[in-house]
Q: What sequence folds into this?
């Protein structure tokens, strides 16, 4: 039976249904560029039982719904007619195998270019696993595997419909502005130990990005709040592998909180460089709800303070490219044996895949082709889209390279292929060094960091960012 995401009703935020927000006297003037915007949202909660993503320990399909999950699209058009679409999902992440067919269909249907499409997933570990391969495993029988594929295929269909709907509604004149808040629950998870090296734990002294960048969209004619896009750089892992119910975790509850306070506005969540950050504390649904309320209330606090918002003008310049990130040579001999016997099921899987490829005469990859993007909003904002599970070091590196101001750095964009560690993390070791887990296998080399930074610098320069 073909799996149908729950409801899948497309809704739009129309100007005639939006609640009134008093016209702000500060941070707005007639010189602010007027954009045109459109929104669409769909419920992507599966109706039939499917496996959840994120924890290999789970051994059966989901057991109910704690909160529905959504996919959303924000369409923007600048004064020159340049269009861009941001798509967010309450999902673990879209691999290239899932994402690129979606983008190809959007391009064909709308005339957009690949650079005009920015995909970002919240990385919730309580959403459906995605796959296009019917491959029964020790966990899934044939029927269960088929349901996962059917869900993924229908998700692709609906995201294409979502984007075309948002673009068809992209006629509302609007102003864009930005502000930044703080998320206090973000915790570095790379805990140093005496005898076990770096473990997944709690490290209060470890580096994290607690910033909450926010993009506010208000009606150009009446100042009503239409939408807010906001971000946190934290894994959506408040809930562990023993939790079997669907929910967007803290990111989903934050979006819900914002729309409770502003019921006629849309709320979009993006995730930043969260590869080595977890929520704190974690383990219970009440904690997930509490973190979501904390984040949602912080965004609402920003929305209530009209003085802190600064204009975001156009024109919009979009750039997209792939970069070949170098991989370490695949381990052999003793190193391969140690990998196979190491703790953590992922090590054994990688070692077995290396052995299988060698036995079959298959070549092992020396690089991974990763996608990256930059959206430049006039001279006011540079939105960087990094792919993979990116560690926090890239925030500091990109701030050094591009300058820290007017900079928004997102991760988990376009292709969530695995962990993208920094050279420091690779030196220290730990879980985040595991590299690619979908679309291939391999451990990134330290030189990958320089390739990523150079790629983003080139994209930002091409898009028109003013460097310090």
A:
């Amino acid at each position: 039976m073909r799996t149908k995401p729950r409801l899948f009703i497309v809704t739009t935020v129309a100007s005639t249904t939006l609640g009134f927000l008093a016209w702000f006297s500060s941070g707005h003037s007639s010189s602010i560029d007027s954009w045109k915007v459109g929104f669409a949202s769909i419920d992507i909660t599966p109706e039939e039982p499917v496996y959840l993503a994120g924890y290999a320990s789970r051994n059966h399909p989901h057991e109910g719904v704690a909160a529905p999950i959504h996919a959303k699209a924000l369409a923007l058009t600048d004064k020159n007619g340049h269009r861009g679409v941001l798509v967010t999902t309450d999902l673990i992440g879209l691999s290239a195998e899932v994402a690129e067919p979606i983008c190809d269909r959007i391009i064909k249907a709308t005339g957009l270019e690949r650079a005009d499409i920015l995909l970002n997933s919240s990385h919730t570990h309580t959403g459906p696993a995605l796959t296009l391969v019917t491959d029964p495993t020790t966990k899934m029988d044939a029927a269960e595997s088929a349901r996962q594929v059917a869900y993924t295929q229908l998700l692709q269909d609906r995201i294409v419909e979502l984007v075309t709907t948002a673009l068809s509604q992209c006629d509302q004149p609007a102003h864009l502005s930005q502000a930044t808040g703080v998320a206090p629950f973000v915790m570095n998870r790379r805990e140093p130990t005496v005898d076990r090296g770096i473990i997944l734990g709690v490290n209060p002294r470890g580096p994290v990005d607690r910033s909450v960048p926010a993009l506010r969209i208000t009606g150009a004619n009446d100042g009503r709040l239409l939408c807010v896009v906001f971000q946190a750089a934290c894994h959506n892992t408040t809930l562990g592998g023993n939790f079997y119910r669907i929910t967007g975790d803290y990111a989903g509850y934050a979006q819900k909180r914002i729309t409770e306070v502003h019921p006629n506005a849309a709320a979009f969540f993006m995730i930043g460089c969260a590869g080595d950050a977890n929520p704190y504390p974690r383990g219970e649904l009440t904690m997930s709800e509490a973190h979501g309320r904390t984040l949602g209330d912080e965004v609402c606090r920003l929305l209530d303070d009209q003085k802190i918002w600064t204009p975001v003008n156009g024109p919009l310049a979009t750039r997209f490219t792939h970069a070949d990130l170098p991989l370490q040579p695949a381990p052999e001999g003793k190193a391969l044996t140690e990998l196979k016997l190491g703790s953590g099921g992922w090590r054994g899987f990688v070692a077995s895949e290396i052995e299988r490829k060698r036995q079959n005469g298959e070549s092992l990859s020396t690089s991974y082709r990763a996608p990256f993007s930059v959206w430049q909003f006039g001279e006011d904002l540079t939105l960087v889209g990094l792919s993979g599970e990116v560690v926090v070091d890239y925030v500091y590196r990109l701030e050094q390279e591009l300058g820290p101001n007017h900079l928004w750095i997102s991760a988990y964009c376009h292709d969530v292929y695995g962990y993208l560690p920094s050279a420091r993390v690779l030196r220290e070791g730990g879980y985040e060094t595991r590299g690619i887990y979908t679309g291939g296998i391999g451990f990134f080399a330290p030189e990958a960091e320089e390739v990523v930074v150079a790629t983003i610098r080139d994209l930002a320069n091409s898009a028109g960012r003013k460097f310090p």
Q: What stands out?
A: The first helix runs from residue 96 to 110. The longest strand covers residues 172-182. The radius of gyration is 21 Å.
